[in-house]
Design brief:
The protein is built from 10 helices and 12 strands. It is of the alpha/beta class. The strands form 3 sheets. A 5-stranded mixed β-sheet has the order 3-2-1-4-7. A 5-stranded mixed β-sheet has the order 10-9-8-11-12, sandwiched between helices.
Length: 315
């Protein structure tokens, strides 16, 4: 079946037509996530029409729209429950009504971290495994889980996806969620410059010369034996390892998938996290596989067919 798929990130919005596990056409537009949701929806409708033309598929030849959203959502009703600083009017926007009015199609909505996991589960690094956790390391930390072949959602829709807000440091940094010592507050890109600036050796670090202060720059300087960068990289890997151990203890997966932009430095991340997990996770039955994402930034898009199918079955 043909499905219109959208992954609404904080920086870019990706739109695509997918069918039978393949992306037939895709494009990306600026997110403008600080602006009202209605502005983004107008641009998204144009993007959907564009990919439809490229794939030679009309909207009425599609089964529906599947939308990945960077927030807490009620996946049964399709309503966004909180904006978390992106698309401020999203919680009051009837996305299902927009999809019907614009294209005459049903709509399914899910959290973006959960969508990335579903995509990897059905088409990527998680194929053939029904007990999975995925950790997406990027601007924030996204987490999602599948247990015994069921996507973990919980009573209020926030089960597993708040995994980046598990405390890894008692009395640690205050997070935007209100908790202290969250993995996200201790390592994520959103807090990286602030964390670096608190170090006394930052003033002598080559990181100061970077116009784009991100993990690519951090790991590059760490490879050059910059003391500050090396210490920050080691700290980040330790925090991510501790988070993965906590997630293994919570969800009992056979495999953990690591994704997100930080995996561009997989050679400096994957093995150290695996080593940390092997030393500290209590898994007397054997070792949990720690593997990289296979689908990259297409993972959430590739979840579209599965999500829409699930919603049709529920209805």
């Amino acid at each position: 079946m043909n499905v219109l798929a959208c992954d609404m990130g904080g920086t870019r919005v990706k739109a695509a037509v997918v069918a039978e596990g393949r992306i037939l056409a895709r494009t990306a537009i600026a997110a403008l996530s600080h602006r009202p949701m209605r502005d983004c929806l107008a641009s998204l409708a144009d993007a959907f029409r564009q990919v439809g033309v490229e794939a030679a598929i009309r909207p009425d030849e599609c089964k529906g729209i599947a939308l990945s959203f960077p927030s807490l959502v009620d996946s049964t009703t399709g309503w966004v429950l909180d904006s978390y600083g992106k698309y401020p009017d999203a919680p009051g926007t009837d996305l299902a009504a927009w999809a019907r009015a614009e294209f005459g199609l049903p709509l399914a909505v899910e959290n973006d971290a959960r969508m990335a996991l579903i995509g990897e589960w059905r088409h990527g690094a998680g194929r053939g495994c029904d007990d999975l956790v995925m950790v997406t390391l990027g601007t924030g930390i996204g987490v999602a889980a599948v247990m015994e072949g069921r996507v973990v959602r919980g009573r209020h829709g926030q089960a597993a996806i708040m995994g980046g807000h598990l405390s890894v440091r008692y009395g640690g940094r205050e997070c935007s969620c209100g908790n202290l010592g969250c993995a996200e507050a201790e390592t994520s890109l959103a807090f990286l410059r602030e964390i670096a600036g608190a170090r006394p050796d930052f003033s002598a670090s080559g990181l100061l010369s970077e116009s784009e202060f991100d993990y690519e720059a951090l790991f590059r300087h760490a490879r050059m034996d910059d003391p500050c960068a090396r210490a920050l990289a080691d700290h980040s890997v330790q925090v991510w390892g501790a988070l993965v151990v906590s997630l293994i203890h919570a969800f009992d997966p056979a495999k953990v998938i690591l994704g997100g932009g930080i995996m561009a430095a997989a050679d400096q991340v994957l093995l150290p996290i695996s080593d940390y997990v092997n030393r500290h996770a209590h898994t007397p039955w054997g070792k949990v596989e720690i593997v990289p994402s296979q689908l990259g930034d297409a993972a959430a898009i590739m979840a579209a067919e599965w999500l829409l199918d699930e919603r049709m079955r529920v209805r």
